[in-house]
Amino acid sequence: MTILTASATAPNAARTGVIIMLLGMLMFSLNDVMGKWLVATYSVSQLMVIRSIAALLVLSPFILKRGLRSMLRVERPWLQALRSLLFAVDASAFYFAVAYMPLADTMTYWLAAPIYVAAASPFLLGEKVGWRRWTAILVGFAGVVIALEPSKDTFSLPALIALVGSAAFAFALMLGRTLRSTPDTTLVFWQVVGALIFSLVGVAANPAGWAPVDGEAVLQLGMLGIVAMLAHILVNRALKLADAATVVPLQYTLLLWAVVFGWWFFGDMPRPTVIIGAGLIVASGLFIFFREQQLKKRGRSV
């Protein structure tokens, strides 16, 4: 009877997972819009400090439920610290880049992160990658180059920082694979703490960059952290309700929202080269993902 019930409810759970994943991507996109709007007034470090504090407040019930002591006892602490640092660089670079670049341009570089992971995994994780995935990786890198459109006019500091940030994000994802036995709450907790410490160092290095804030500004900056945390919670929930093969490809809706919100709120339109490059990146990322899923089902890793 239990098996029949579980089988009958599985399609409903998958549909719910898809809806929740789409909502999570929308929340991430709203976080990007808010960040682009706020960095026009506040420094990246100030934004990150208040965002991190707000995120910790949202996390506090989960932390209390698990116990603070369990948060402090982690496996391989140096890798945890490196992962937190990489995520801090990733977030800071994103907010810096999005202050100067259209949302769609910036998001294109970040969507290339799974391609970087696939390219580096044979060397850093010892995973085997066959010729099909190597071909997809090369296509994805071609997409990055086309989107970047390297020249003295387009190869700007924000574009370079975007590449550094997306690479940091990719390596943080790889460390997440290595630390997969660590509970999600612990990973998110140290990710937020790392961002807070990193941004406090930035504030100390440039105290003049701290703009005066009133109650409304604190609320706006705090909402940035709350929206980001809700997005993470929604994505984690979606992955528990539906197979990764069903919901993970929906992350590419971020690019659609970036184009729509960039045009709607900021009057930005992506360059033709960005659209072409993004198409190659998305196609490459989807091929790599589904190829990995196929190989897992076969019990192979080549």
In short:
The protein has helices at 2-38, 44-66, 68-72, 77-100, 103-110, 113-124, 131-148, 157-178, 184-205, 215-241, 244-247, 253-266, 272-298. With 302 residues, the chain is mainly alpha-helical.
Describe the structure.
This protein is mainly alpha-helical and 302 residues long. Helices cover 80% and strands 0% of the residues. The protein has helices at residues 2-38, 44-66, 68-72, 77-100, 103-110, 113-124, 131-148, 157-178, 184-205, 215-241, 244-247, 253-266, 272-298. Helix 1 (2-38) runs parallel beside helix 12 and helix 4 (77-100) runs antiparallel to helix 8 (157-178). The chain is globular and about 55 Å long. The chain starts with a helix and ends with a helix. The model is unreliable at 1-8 (pLDDT under 50).
Observed structural traits:
single chain; mainly alpha; globular; 302 residues; 80% helix
Blueprint of the fold:
Layout: H1 2-38, H2 44-66, H3 68-72, H4 77-100, H5 103-110, H6 113-124, H7 131-148, H8 157-178, H9 184-205, H10 215-241, H11 244-247, H12 253-266, H13 272-298
Helix pairs in contact: 1-10, 1-12, 2-9, 2-10, 4-8, 4-9, 5-12, 5-13, 6-7, 6-8, 7-13
Low-confidence sequence ranges: 1-8
Evaluate the radius of gyration.
20 Å
Classification by helices and strands = mainly alpha
The fraction of residues assigned to DSSP E strands is under 5%
Number of helices: 13
H/E element order: HHHHHHHHHHHHH
Number of strands: 0
Question: Main sheet, how many strands, which sense, barrel?
Answer: none
Q: Look at the structure and give the mean pLDDT.
A: 83
| Helical amount | over 70%
Distance between the termini: 39 Å
Shape assignment = globular
